[in-house]
Structure formats: C-alpha cells, structure tokens
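Sample 3 of the quickstart, ligand magnesium ion:
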Amino acid sequence: MSLLRVENLSIQFGGVRAIQDLDFTIDPGTVHSIIGPNGAGKTTLFNLITGVYRPTTGAIYLDDQPVTGRRPNELARMGMSRTFQNLQIMMNMTALENVMVGRHLHLNRNLLACLLRLPAITRGDRTARKRCIELMERVGLGGYINAEAGAMPYGALKRLEIARALAAEPTLLLLDEPAAGLNARETKEIDEVIVAVARAGVTVVLVEHDMKLVMGISDHILVLDYGRKLAEGTPEEVRNNPAVIAAYLGNV
Ligand SMILES: Nc1ncnc2c1ncn2[C@@H]1O[C@H](COP(=O)(O)OP(=O)(O)OP(=O)(O)O)[C@@H](O)[C@H]1O
Ligand SMILES: [Mg+2]
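Result:
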C-alpha cells in the first residue's frame, strides 16, 4: 500500500497550469525525489499535498484516506510535515524555541490547565524540550541549542528547519530544496541528515536541484516539466531516460 497517492491532480493560476493531470504514488519508508527545472511546479505540488492550495481537479490520498481539501493543520496532525524553500525561521527566537514551535501539535494547550500550571503541563513541556534537544543533536545542531536563530549561519538554519519539521513526529516529511545555497560540505551534512531520517522510518519527499544529492539518496524520482510528469523511476532509469536528458539534465 502506498503512503501517498495523487490522482489526476491539476491546479491552475489564471492562465498558468502549474500542475497538470499528475498521477504518482509514494511508498512508505522511501526517499522520493521530485525534480524539474525552475517553475516546473515542484513547490506548488508541495503546497497541494500539504493543503496550502486546493487542487482545481484531482484527489490526494494519505494512507488510502482521501485528504483532498483538508487544511494544513489537519494534515500535520495526520503525520505530514514540511520545510520551506524560503526559510521560515523566527529569527528573534532561540534555535530550541523554533524547534519547540514544531512540537505544538503534541502539547496539551488547554488554557485553564496552563494557567494553573498543572503538573501534567510542566511535565509535558519538559518532555517536549528534551525531545527537541534530541532532534537538534540528530541534525548536528547540538552546539546551537540556546543560540539566537538570527545569529546562526545559513547552513545551520537549513538544518534547524528540518529539526522543527521533525518535532511534529511526521510519517511523511517534505523537504523543499534543503541544500539550496549550501556549500559542498554543508550539502554532505544535509545528505547525511536525510539518510538518517529515512533510516529512522520517516518517508521523505525531496525537492532538490543538486543532482548529486538527489541521485545519491533517492529510491525513486519523479521528473516534472511544465507541471506534467516527464518521467519517473529509479535514479538509474531517470538518468538514462532520453526525454529527461533532452529536457534539461544534460550529462548527469
Ligand atoms: N500562488 C501562485 N499564483 C500564481 N502563480 C503561481 C503561484 N504559485 C506558483 N505559481 C506559478 O506556478 C508555476 C510553478 O511554480 P513553482 O513555484 O511550483 O515552481 P518550482 O518547480 O517550485 O520552481 P523553483 O525550482 O524555481 O522553486 C510557476 O509558473 C509559478 O509562477
Ligand atoms: Mg520551488
């Protein structure tokens, strides 16, 4: 059974058909990459999957349940979590506080219980804090726990976004260009983080322009071009697909 299934999905913005008649499935426990030239519709597809946009036509199923039109917070509760192409970090908060924000789904936020500072709340906060520190260590940010986000280097902020997304304990993690703007060493660190996350059992959907990274860690690749599926398959199959080579990959 697939974890995510997309059927006949389309969205149109005025005259722009950003996604057209798209069908694909994502198996649990895999790293599934979505690649394509700028403007191919990759971020739009993430926005459709995570409920930010409602499709013009088509359907999305999570664990065989129809989820088309559900709101982002509902989908987050069902196990979807994501990072953003443009960093969505709160720069006036500490790194740990940013990760804690990703945890809010799992916190008991009954107002009265909070006001009374019931022991369960304090205990919950302590457990959440511990888990968030663990996640920061897992993405290599153990040295930044109490750092002001605004003072952190860009490469660390990209990993902070992943830690925050993981704080929601997702089953499906969508990463929109996690290596964009990173140097070779930082890209390798991100590569290791993604592999470790996948090994821990989280299904990863990766949008990325760095072909070396994509080819190295993906189980399956979907190639988009002008909102349509151009090809899909294993890295080997995609690399050797004449349509892909002709469209833009060149000599990967
Ligand atoms: N909210 C919107 N309103 C109008 N047009 C949009 C909107 N979102 C995306 N588009 C258009 O949809 C197309 C796909 O954009 P999208 O951002 O999904 O591409 P992408 O594959 O993520 O590109 P990149 O690699 O540059 O991030 C583009 O033509 C874009 O201008
Ligand atoms: Mg994009």
